[in-house]
Amino acid sequence: MIRSLLLASAFSLIAMASAQAGAQYVDKSGFAIGGYDPVAYFDLAQSPVGQRQAPAVPGKASITAEYNGATWAFASEAHRDRFLADPAKYAPAYDGHCAYGIAQGGKVPGNPNLWRIVDGTLYLNITPTVVGFWEADIPDNLSKSRANWAELESKPASESSWKALDDNKGTYSGEAPITD
């Protein structure tokens, strides 16, 4: 009896450990979150709801790490080391897809410059207009997105470009990652 219980527990742990996140959103840059540094968000001052956040910090193409099937770029080796120590802490929720899109039941790209950290988790949204919808009721949108993610996680990553949307003009300048 105890042996069967131990074997069942071991198989459950193996199954949980082998479960992977969904496909990471990677845009035309070839990098997760468009080549921006995921750790840098946690060092930026967060603006109050309703105000635009500080722009994302571009990573460097020469300082990278692999996680969740994608290449991530970092502004410094120290940031890369922090990320590698706990990648799930720094990677955006919903594999870099728009949090409001997930709340609405679909996978659309996240714009790395439209971000908010809530309870230690980084969330991205697709356009400034969508940020307004997201921030109008963050707790309700989080509840919906968390419920929807169970079904959406295994679906393919978005292949759309957040930069292709007219509403995103002015949300970024230059390219990321930076080539040294």
Oligomerization status of the protein chains? single chain
Q: On the 0-100 scale, what is the average pLDDT?
A: 89
- Count of alpha and pi helical runs: 6
DSSP summary, beta strand count = 4
Which strands sit side by side, in order, in the main sheet?
Answer: 1-2
Tell me, briefly, the overall form.
Answer: globular
Tally of domains: 1
Structure classification: alpha+beta
Helix content: 25-40%
Describe what you observe in this structure.
This is YHS domain protein. Keywords: Signal. This protein is α+β, with helices and mostly antiparallel strands and 180 residues long. It has one domain. The protein contains six helices and four strands. It has a two-stranded antiparallel ribbon with strand order 1-2. Strands 3-4 form a two-stranded antiparallel ribbon. Strand 1 and strand 2 form a beta hairpin. The longest helix has 17 residues. The termini are far apart. The N terminus is likely disordered.
Q: Secondary-structure blueprint of this entry?
A:
Layout: H1 2-18, E1 60-67, E2 70-74, H2 77-85, H3 87-90, H4 99-103, E3 111-118, E4 121-125, H5 128-136, H6 138-152
Antiparallel strand pairs: 1-2, 3-4
What does this entry show, briefly?
The protein has helices at residues 2-18, 77-85, 87-90, 99-103, 128-136, 138-152; strands at residues 60-67, 70-74, 111-118, 121-125. With 180 residues, it is an alpha+beta fold. It has one domain.
